[in-house]
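Hey L., structure's done. Input below.
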Amino acid sequence: MNATEQQSLFDAWLRRHAGIPHHVAHGFAEGADREDLMQELLIALWKSIPAFRGGCMAPTFIYRVCHNAALTWRRAGRNRERRMERYRATSEAALDGARPPDAGAGEGSGSGSAGEADAVLLEQLYGAIRRLPDLERSLILLALDGLTYREMAEVHGIGESNVGVRLHRARQRLGVLLGQTQNQNQPSAEETTS
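Output:
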């Protein structure tokens, strides 16, 4: 495959399946990290094009590449975090505990449009998804994108019945995590009576 063919296929995939890397990035990262991950996913997809032989459908291949790249990115991120923690500890010791004043992050007023409320709920959902184990996270993201059990099984190399069982467990765990998030955002009985 020459560079022109590779570029043409990459462009076609992005036109038809741009949501795939987007959903994976949202499921694995937040904030500025999401943009970094998105770049990593697109680079991984570009590099993998010569390996695509048409043995599976393009979306299945794209999911596989993106999910594997996200897992690799996350592992590398853990290593980065450890290095940053060591750096912070060393810096704090060198500065003898001196810290800059807090930047005073304010709370929102709680009132906003329905779009803002939807955005908050969506971020809570992605936050809960990010707390799931890797395989469960992946299956939930694939299910949200409407893949069949067969397609999910192809992406992960497991049986369809295994997908069903694991997806059921993932949905249960996600429900618990979302329930915890909702409980954290609601005032306690003591707060409402005082």
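The chain has two domains: 1-97, 114-185. Residues 23 and 144 are 9 Å apart (CA to CA).

-- N.
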